[in-house]
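Hi again,

Forgot to attach this to my earlier email, sorry! This is the prediction with nicotinamide-adenine-dinucleotide bound. I've pasted everything inline since the attachment limit keeps bouncing my files.
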Amino acid sequence: MTVEVKNILITGGAGFIGSNLCHYLTKQNFNILCLDNFDDFYSEEIKLNNIKSLINEKSFELIRGDIRDSKLLKTIFENNKIETVIHLAAKAGVRNSILNPTDYFDINVNGTLTLLEAMKSNGVKNLVFASSSSVYGNKNGKLKETETCNEQISPYAVSKKTAKLLNYSYHVNFKMNVINLRLFSVYGKNQRPDLVIHKFFNQISQNKPIEIYGNGETKRDYTYIDNVVEAIYNSVLYIETQTQSVYEIINIGNDNPIPLIELLDCIKEAIQTDKIEFVKKKIEKGDVETTHADIEKAKKLLNYNPSVSLNEGIKLFYDWFKIENL
Ligand SMILES: NC(=O)c1ccc[n+]([C@@H]2O[C@H](COP(=O)([O-])OP(=O)(O)OC[C@H]3O[C@@H](n4cnc5c(N)ncnc54)[C@H](O)[C@@H]3O)[C@@H](O)[C@H]2O)c1
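C-alpha cells for the complex follow:
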C-alpha cells in the first residue's frame, strides 16, 4: 500500500518552534515547505543552524521569503498542492513590541491577512495558527479558552488577538478550518536567545549575574518544545479527521505555573551548582504577573499530554546548550 505524502507549508519554519516542527514532521510522512524571511529579531546564523541538517532532505524545502509577499505566496500555492498551513511566522517578543509596535502589526496582522487571502484564492482550507498566552492580559488563576480577552498589555498581544479575529472571519466567510493554539512560554532546543531560560544559560556561561525582573515571584506555565510540537501535529490530524468545518482556540500549556525563583532551582540542579548570582531589575512594561493554562480542552481534542516536567526539560535544554555553546 502506498502512503499518501501530504504537503504542509510552515511559515516561520526556521525559528525556534518552526525548526523543531520541521524536524518532527519530515519524519512523519509530510513534505515540508518552510517559508522564512530570516527577519532581524535575532541572527540569521542561528536560524540557518536550526535547519541545516534538513537542507538536503528530499521532504524539506526552504523558501526564503516574506509572508507579506502575495506574489510569492501565489507561486507557492500554485506550484504545490498544499493541504495545511502552519502559521508561525511573526515578530515575536512582548517587550520589544512596546518599542516598535508598527512592525508587529505589519508582520503579525498584515502578514496573516496576506496569507489568508492567498489561502482563500488557492483553495487551501486548513490553518493551524500560533497564538499566545499573552492575549489573556494580566489575569490571575487558571485560564480557560472561554475567558474574555479584551485587555491585552502589549502590542504583540494585540497583534495576536487581531490575527485570531481575522482567522475567525475567514472561517465564517470561506469555511476555512482553523485551530488557534494559545502557546504558553515554550522552551527547549533552539529556543530564541531573548527568552528566559536561554537568556539565563547564556548569562551564566559568560560568568555574568542573571537578570531577574521583579522579586522572582512572577510565574510562568513553562511548556517543553516536544509537547508543543506534538500538539501542533495533532492539530493537523484533528482538522483532517473532522467532517464539519473546524474553528477552535486551544491552550497549550502545562497547568503548572512556576515562580521564577523555582525556575532558578531547576537550573541549579541541571548545572549542578549551589548558587547562581543574580541582579534584580524592575518588571518591564508588557510583562504579566502569572500565566496558567487550563489544558482540559487540549487533552480532550488533541490527546495532549505535557509529559516533560520542568526539571527534565531544563536538563534536556542544558544538554543541547552545552553542545551548541560550550
Ligand atoms: N516561543 C514562545 O514561547 C511562544 C509563545 C507564544 C506564541 N509563540 C508564537 O509562536 C510562533 C513562533 O515563535 P518562536 O518562538 O519560534 O519565534 P521565532 O522568532 O524563533 O520564529 C519566528 C520565525 O518567523 C520568521 N519570520 C518573521 N517575520 C517573517 C515574515 N514576515 N515572513 C516570513 N517569516 C518571518 C522569523 O525569521 C523566525 O524564523 C510565533 O508566532 C510566536 O508569536 C511563541
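The pocket of nicotinamide-adenine-dinucleotide is lined by residues 11-12, 14-18, 35-39, 41, 47, 66-68, 88-92, 107, 111, 130, 132, 183, 185-186, 192 (CB under 6 Å). The CA atoms of residues 25 and 32 lie 7 Å apart.

That should be everything now.

G.
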